[in-house]
Amino acid sequence: MGEGAPVAVLVDYDGTISRRDIGSLLLDRHAADRAALARYDAAYDAGTIGSAELLLWDLEVLPDRPDLLRAEAAAVPQDEGFIDLVRSARARGAIVEVVSDGLGFYIEANLRRLGLTDLPVATNGNELRGPAGASFPYGEPSCGWCGTCKRGRVLAHRAAGRLVILVGDGTSDRYAAHHADIVLATGRLADWCAERGLPAVRWSRLAEVADWLERAWADGRLPGPGHPPPPPRSPEPAWICGPEAWGGGAPVVPPDT
Q: Which of 104, 217, 245, 255 has its CA 20 to 30 A from that of 78?
């Protein structure tokens, strides 16, 4: 582990770092079949289709104009409080990783505009060539439900001996929130956590998250540099997603739905 704090801060991108969900914005502007868009969004929110299927449909209906899509994605404001969040975590040697189950093609370019050029990013591959240009390097091979398995990123960092903090806002973040040690939530994720009785710290701007991290390290709620890794958590209640929930094989509707 080295001398850094044994902490990983996993941060969603769309609607969390970006002030708007860029995929939803592009679809609102360019998807001609509004009824189909509403059906797919509702099915995804309800958990009856996975994000991998949704992303392939998105790429089918978006225009074959990569330069236009990139320009529109670049114009979406980002929350500059993310810079302080990264600075706070890195000052203690903690890891900050962007985890996104969105269209993905704009994330690294947009982060460069914030001056952040070396953050690890786990997201979907997208060459803007329609569905044929999509890939899922961070998916769970035995499942296929999500394009990016955020749950998998949580479990990977926990297996490496890190306490995992999730910062998110949306539907895909619930799969990680169930397994994270600490959840900082806004939007739909905050509502979902409240409905399930899952403890979560609410926020509205990422500057509040950066302040929370500073206070948590100052008062010992988070392990600092050189501290031993957190003890293993007790087994999770049976739920939510992953091959251990349904035995691997073909994707199925998660038992939660």
A: 217
Per-residue pLDDT tens, the chain, 257 aa: give them: 458 999 999 999 999 999 999 999 999 999 999 999 999 988 888 777 889 999 999 999 999 999 999 999 999 999 999 999 999 999 999 999 999 999 999 999 999 999 999 999 999 999 999 999 999 999 988 778 899 999 999 999 999 999 999 999 998 898 899 889 999 999 999 999 999 899 999 999 999 999 999 999 999 999 999 888 788 766 555 446 655 544 444 444 444 44
Rg for the chain (alpha carbons), in Å? 18
Does 246 reside within a domain?
no
SS3 47: coil
Torsion of CA 173, 179, 184, 185, to 10 degrees: 40
In a domain, 244, yes or no: no
What length does the chain have?
257
Q: Return the bridge partners of 126, or none.
A: 134
* Count of domains for the chain: 1
Is-contact 109 70, C-beta < 8 A? yes
Task: Answer yes or no: pTM beyond 0.85.
Answer: yes
Segments forming the whole domain that contains residue 155:
7-225
The CATH number linked to 91 is 3.40.50.1000
Count of CA atoms in the C-beta half-sphere (13 A) of 121? 23
Q: Is residue 231 part of a domain?
A: no
In a domain, 241, yes or no: no
